[in-house]
Design brief:
With 391 residues, this protein is an alpha+beta fold. The chain contains 11 helices and 12 strands.
Length: 391
């Protein structure tokens, strides 16, 4: 924050006030919760795995260590070569004593920051997805052979462009990492074998390779055009009909709206992974953005209620103005229990049924209104939460 708001001016100051940005960052990285084995845990140290802020904060932290402690310290021998990508660093030292001393120095900088290191073996050292090899005369780089070639099959039900993009992406990766044409030729041959095992035709693979290499050896002159407004459309992939529909939409847009640049991407359909749950399900009280129903344990369907909440279910039922909070001044559920006077009439939180879910509040209100239109319950007093013009 000091460097961002009170730096030397090399970084543009955000429009947000410092206290607002600080609070937003705290909300994102502090008190993160996760579910494991049906229990809810709170992460007290570090950034949540999978968080988009993780790499950014790691890079900021490493920059801080480098500026404040590493490069300004004269009591430790620095590496003769130092390059870093986020939190992975490639260093060159004269001997192993310097490595050990530098490693101990890094681990002493902060109690929560611990570094590990790998040494070269037989003149080779892996860094990210690259293998760096050295001999007395030269240094070479090539793609690290870690993948097993488990790509999707060529006959998979996906657009052909996705298949060509896969080949082009991996060929581009090999080209950018290879330090010589000999290494490039060997790596491309290995890559082609992996594609052939996944059913990719030889002509298809070779065409993609030519397309990538032509970018470097057949430069194109830039075409100057008027900037166009970009519009993104997402639609499901249903085979050839989706391809035809995309072509027709682009043709109509180019004809009637030439100032618009439409980009159409396909949405993934049903996958095998959708049929299996690898993560723990959220407990009922932690679910949010849902339409729910609940009914009296004794009266059953004759005393039922349909509602929606963008917050968690627990907050909706037991928070301020919650359905089952005794301090709530107006609650259809509590009014029913009080009006009957029957001790057996009650509503149990665990009997709530999830009818639907959505992340957007106004869509959630539309879904709730549809349920109220066709399946209104006795305890619901409102006709809808969003006016339905089509019914």
């Amino acid at each position: 924050m000091d460097k961002l708001y009170r730096g030397n001016g090399s970084i543009a100051v955000p429009n947000l006030p410092e206290e607002v940005l600080r609070k937003l960052l705290s909300l994102c990285v502090c008190d993160n919760t996760f579910v494991f084995n049906g229990k809810i845990y709170s992460q007290i140290d570090g950034v949540a795995m999978g968080s988009s802020l993780g790499p950014v904060l790691a890079n900021i932290w490493m920059c801080h260590l480098e500026e404040q402690y590493i490069f300004s310290n004269r009591d430790v021998t620095l590496p003769s070569f130092y390059r870093r990508y986020v939190d992975d660093t490639f260093c060159i030292f004269k001997d192993r004593e310097e490595i050990s001393a530098f490693h101990e120095f890094l681990n002493s900088l902060h109690v929560s920051t611990k570094f590990d290191f790998d040494l070269e073996s037989d003149g080779k050292l892996s860094f990210l997805d690259t293998v760096v090899s050295r001999n007395p005369k030269s240094v070479s780089t090539k793609v690290k052979a870690t993948d097993k070639g488990l790509f999707y099959d060529y006959n998979s039900f996906i657009p052909d462009r996705y298949k060509s993009n896969l080949v082009c992406c991996l060929v581009y990766r090999v080209y950018m990492i290879a330090s010589s044409f000999h290494v490039l030729d060997c790596d491309l041959k290995q890559l082609c074998l992996k594609f052939y095992k996944n059913g990719f035709p030889k002509d298809f693979v070779e065409e993609c390779i030519s397309r990538v290499l032509n970018r470097f050896y057949e430069p194109k002159e830039p075409v100057v055009s008027v900037p166009r407004k970009e519009v993104l459309m997402v639609m499901p992939y249903l085979g050839n009909m989706s391809v035809v529909l995309k072509r027709d939409i682009l043709k109509l847009v180019r004809k009637f709206y030439p100032s618009v640049d439409v980009k159409i991407v396909y949405k993934r359909g049903l996958r095998i992974s959708n049929m299996f749950k690898f993560k723990d399900c959220f407990p009922l009280k932690c679910k949010s953005g849902i339409v729910y129903s609940i009914q009296c344990n004794k009266c059953g369907q004759s005393a039922a209620y349909i509602g929606k909440t963008k917050n968690t279910l627990f907050e909706r039922f037991y928070g301020s103005n919650g359905h089952l909070n005794p301090r709530t001044q107006k609650s259809a559920l509590i009014d029913h229990v009080v009006s009957t006077g029957d001790p057996e009439c009650n509503f149990e939180f665990n009997t709530i049924k999830i009818l639907d879910n959505c992340d957007v509040d106004y869509r959630l209100r539309i879904i709730e209104s549809i349920y109220l239109k066709f399946d209104k319950q006795s305890l619901n007093t409102q006709e809808y939460s969003f006016p339905l013009k089509l019914f």
